[in-house]
Write a structure and sequence with these properties.
14 strands, 5-stranded mixed beta sheet, Aspartate Aminotransferase, domain 2, 46% helix, Aspartate Aminotransferase, domain 1, binds 4'-deoxy-4'-aminopyridoxal-5'-phosphate, binds (2E)-pent-2-enedioic acid, alpha/beta, globular
């Protein structure tokens, strides 16, 4: 009965494998490298409590009232200053997942093509899918999306009159592979976007979390006229996901359309949460907090890399990425192994990961997995990788 009433897109919607998995691996005995969760012991709860009481005292009536759809003006000014853009370029969102939805809402007609990384962030695929997008995946190497493949694909799509409206890229410490696109490649991608008149949707939640190497400029700073880049940012990874707070940087005409789309979605992002974050930024406490996160997460990344070096079996075809930042690395198993099939064995050994196929729109590349290093403690990283190494060794004996 319900099936008959559902819209076409709702019928095609699928639950996120990651969100389902998070329920499964919540047991305390499981060491989880699955969810993309920040370390909760680092949430600045005391600071948030102090700032909340200041906000309530100074501006409680305003903070508890509806606010403008564009977002808190002073917060937008601060963010514009931070990003060296204009306030008209900024729209506050209910975190970046909403940014993905709003951008889809204003650009994707059913059947439209969207270019995505192969693999890419699952929640991006889910958002685009809700508007019935058709995907074309571009494989990644250690420098992100392969630009020669992108070029060939765009040539073909142009011939077929099937060009996408945008290319979705996670340029810094990509989710799920952990790789970063260097400046030269960003420029090439922009040239292609300009040649074929496409937008770039740049999703940058991990950008401030760099542990090694040199920062690369944001796409919008490379786009001279600021014409074709839409950038999503979120406070989820640098403060706390529970605030559900983020923002979009885009040309003012795109911001205008996004504002209308947002009005029909949630009217405005929580003014209360916006006021707290604005005050934390004004008191110069966010930068200090990010420095702390960087030092703790760097240690965790290093611990995971050395545990992998130390415990993984020496096996042809077994490899992993070495990210310069973010929360994840990507492990490839030898051809012929299947991380989906192996998952039961991993769970029985009390260790969890996200299967790599979840990040491929067609469910392929089953010999891959994503490992998160921000959530577990250093000890658990060590023990969990030891368990995983044993699981891989046993599975390989059985299937290879
Ligand atoms: N984009 C990417 C690439 C992500 O990794 C995530 C969260 N893991 C999001 C968007 C959504 O995050 P949020 O809605 O909390 O900002
Ligand atoms: O909890 C979520 O869905 C956000 C994390 C995403 C991820 O693990 O990639």
């Amino acid at each position: 009965m319900l099936e008959d009433k559902l819209s076409t897109v709702a019928k095609a919607m699928k639950r996120s494998e990651i969100r389902e998995l998070l329920k499964l691996v919540a047991k305390p005995e499981i060491i989880s490298f699955a969810g993309g969760m920040p370390d909760p012991t680092l949430f600045p709860s005391k600071l948030i409590a102090e700032v909340t009481s200041e906000v309530m005292e100074k501006e409680g009536e305003r903070a508890l009232q509806y606010g403008p759809t564009e977002g808190d003006t002073e917060l937008r000014e601060k963010l514009a200053e931070w990003d060296k853009v204009d306030i008209d370029n900024i729209l506050i969102t209910t975190a970046s997942q909403q940014g993905l939805d709003l951008v889809s809402k204003i650009f994707i007609d059913p059947g439209d093509t969207v270019i995505v990384g192969y693999p890419t962030y699952l929640g991006g695929l889910q958002a685009f899918n809700s508007y019935d997008a058709k995907f074309i995946g571009i494989p990644l190497d250690d420098e992100g999306m392969k630009v020669d493949v992108l070029e060939g694909t765009l040539q073909k799509l142009s011939r077929d009159r099937n060009l996408p409206k945008f290319i979705y890229i996670v340029p810094d410490f990509q989710n799920p592979k952990g790789v970063t696109m260097p400046t030269d490649r960003r420029k090439r991608v922009l040239e292609l976007a300009s040649k074929y008149d496409l937008l770039i949707l740049s999703d940058t939640p991990y950008r401030p979390l760099r542990y090694s190497g040199e920062p690369c400029p944001n796409f919008f700073h490379l786009d001279g006229g600021m014409e074709r880049v839409i950038t999503l940012f979120t406070f989820s990874k640098i403060l706390c996901p529970g605030f559900r707070l983020g923002y979009i940087v885009a040309p003012p005409d795109i911001i205008d359309k996004l504002v209308v789309a947002k009005q029909g979605t949630d009217l405005c992002t929580s003014p209360f949460n916006q006021a707290i974050v604005r005050e934390i930024i004004k008191q110069d406490k966010l930068d200090r907090h990010i420095k702390k996160l960087v030092s703790v997460y760097k240690e965790k990344r290093d611990r995971m890399l050395s545990a992998l070096d130390n415990y993984m079996p020496k096996m042809e075809g077994l490899s992993w990425t070495r990210p310069d930042g973010g929360l994840f690395l990507w492990l490839t198993l030898p051809e012929g192994m299947d991380a989906n099939r192996m998952f039961e064995r991993a769970l029985a050994s009390n260790v969890a990961y996200v299967v790599g196929s979840a990040f491929h729109y067609d469910g392929n590349c089953k010999n891959t997995m994503r490992l998160n290093f921000s959530y577990p403690t250093l000890e658990k990283i060590d023990e969990g990788i030891k368990r995983l190494a044993k699981v891989i060794e046993e599975e390989a004996k059985e299937v290879l």
